[in-house]
Design a protein that fits this description.
The chain has 225 residues and is an alpha/beta fold. The chain has one domain: Class I glutamine amidotransferase (GATase) domain (Rossmann fold). The chain contains five helices and eleven strands. The strands form two sheets. Strands 2-1-3-4-11-10-9-6-7 form a nine-stranded mixed sheet, with helices on both faces. α2 links the parallel β3 and β4. α1 crosses α5. It starts with a strand and ends with a helix. It binds glutamine. Glutamine binds next to β7.
Length: 225
């Protein structure tokens, strides 16, 4: 069965092509490329990816304008129906701004742009995105962001921790994120936002394949369903 994925491009997205390549490698078929101004998405999708970059220049607040793009209403509807939605970096910022994930991404604690490989601990191996990892595995994935400092109030943090919704945690302090949270799931487990870029870690020639496991997990979860 073919895996029908869509990659959304906002004005300023710059990781959409890498995301499409990562999905095609895992699925064997290229994803649909969707412009943010398209208000409709195909009915039968198996995966939606919001890539990294600088939507609308991130001038107002990272992800704030993109969260109000026409396509986001369709993304929210599909998320509600259980379609897997992955937001990476700017995509994570868009998902929090759209209210599809809790919390917010603030300016990095040291006010700097952090661009390097980081080590992550895989906290949740139950989700469709993370089932292929070993529990508590340390993986290497690159980050490149200015606004990756995850913030939520204590009650929210306790709730998402208690529900096992922290997918990934930084092993070293990276950007000031509360409880070193690098990736968060929604309550239903079908929406994942993460600051590190798994689509940049899908080839041994360019920094390893720890990110490929995420895309392969999603493809396998559909095949097993
Ligand atoms: N690579 C990215 O997606 C960057 C995201 C965001 N604009 C930031 O700098 O925080």
């Amino acid at each position: 069965m073919s895996f029908r994925a869509a990659v959304i491009t906002f004005p300023g997205s710059n990781c959409d092509r890498d995301m499409a390549v990562a999905l095609e490698r895992a699925a064997g078929t290229p994803p649909l490329r969707v412009w943010h101004a398209d208000a409709a998405l195909p009915d039968r999708l198996d995966f939606i990816a919001l890539p990294g970059g600088f939507s609308y220049g991130d001038y107002l607040r990272s992800g704030a304008m993109a969260a109000n793009s026409p396509v986001m209403r369709a993304v929210a509807k599909q998320a509600e129906r259980g379609v897997p939605v992955l937001g990476v970096c700017n995509g994570f910022q868009v998902l929090t701004e759209a209210g599809l994930l809790p919390g917010a991404l603030l300016r990095n604690a040291k006010q700097n742009f952090v661009c390097r490989d980081v080590q992550l601990k895989v906290e949740n191996t139950q989700s469709l995105f993370t089932a292929g990892y070993d529990k508590d595995a340390a993986i290497t994935i690159p980050v490149a962001h200015h606004d990756g400092n995850y913030f939520a109030n204590e009650e929210t943090l306790d709730r998402i921790e208690g529900d096992g919704r922290v997918a990934f945690r930084y092993l070293d302090a990276t950007n000031g994120s509360q409880r070193d949270i690098a990736g968060v799931l929604n309550a239903a487990g079908n929406v994942l936002g993460m600051m590190p870029h798994p689509e940049r870690a899908v080839d041994t020639a360019t920094g390893g394949t720890d990110g490929a496991i995420l895309f392969e997990s999603a493809v396998k979860s559909l095949a097993d369903a």
